[in-house]
Amino acid sequence: MYEAILTLCLAAAGQEVCRDTLLPGYEAETEDACTAQLAARPPAADRAPLVARGAPRCAPAGPALAVTEIAPGVFVHVGAIAEPDAANGGDVANLGFVIGEAGVAAIDAGSTRAVAEGLWRAIRARTDLPVSHLVLTHMHPDHVLGAPLFTEAGAQVAGHAGLDRALADRGATYLESLARLVGPQAALGSGVVAVDLPVEGMGEIDLGGRVLALRAWPPAHTGTDLTATDPQTGTVFAGDLVFDRHAPALDGSLRGWQAVLETMRAEPHDRVVPGHGAATLDWPDGAAPLVRYLDRLAADTRAALDAGERLSEAVDHVAADEAPHWQLFEAYNPRNATVAFTELEWE
């Protein structure tokens, strides 16, 4: 398989940083066929703020992300349980896609365009149907900053009705942090995209013979959480409303998250794809560790407040007995305790 690539560069910190980037939609079995497609449909020339070095060209396809088919036509890539860094290139979130009869929906886009390119190749290895939709489950950078690859391919972006505003507020900070964590070359081409299909309450996208049900939730893990359900297989892409092994991250409302999980656990799904951890979890049992953690976080925070502790004192011990059950616990639990303390002190 051949694909089209273009060398893109960006002036950063006084030097030019370049990376060969995938141009989606020109895949072909032979180099000549790929080149013919480039000639018939020249890609857009304006890549600001990036600058092209040379012309688009065809080359053997690069590496695809490893994916598992967890149900017929439903695929998941498992990201590393780690903070983004140069070694993992930002591949730290679970991503997926669902194949219908007329199109494909990608679920989340990863931290970088490079990660999204790997997901694109995984899709192309299994179908040549158009990627008609990209569903973004929430605003965090490890799930959204690879999105430009998919919008360039013509995908419509579905997300929570509040996602545009959240990314407008945080996007620049996310991109600065990404370049620092994974390096400017690995981050090149990543960015924030606009939501085409904002969801407030319930929505759906039709992939042809397969309709995905979208649901925007009240503030929970974040203020922009959205789930995508495939009724055909009983599969729910939960984003970071569900964590497995990776320490949970609270960036919304503790009480809201507990309420959302209570609602979700009452629903008869066959399996749930968490935002981090295993490719799939049985439901509702798969949520039990997260529910236990949030309950402990709430109970310890309330106890600290009742004892008259200050925030600086509480963060050292709130939910500390949960540490053996979660990876990256020290990176996330103090932040969670801070958010919980700030929310619950006003009860």
Automatic annotation (TrEMBL):
InterPro entries per the UniProt record, alphabetical: Metallo-B-lactamas, NDM-1-like, RibonucZ/Hydroxyglut_hydro, SoxH-rel_PQQ_2
What CDD domains does the annotation carry? metallo-hydrolase-like_MBL-fold
Family per UniProt?
Belongs to the metallo-beta-lactamase superfamily. Class-B beta-lactamase family.
Q: Which domain of life is it from?
A: Bacteria
| Pfam families cross-referenced by the UniProt entry | Lactamase_B (PF00753)
Tell me one GO biological process term. Answer: antibiotic catabolic process
NCBIfam families noted in UniProt: SoxH_rel_PQQ_2
Q: Which residues form the Metallo-beta-lactamase domain?
A: 92-276
Q: What is this protein called?
A: Beta-lactamase
SUPFAM superfamilies xrefs: Metallo-hydrolase/oxidoreductase (SSF56281)
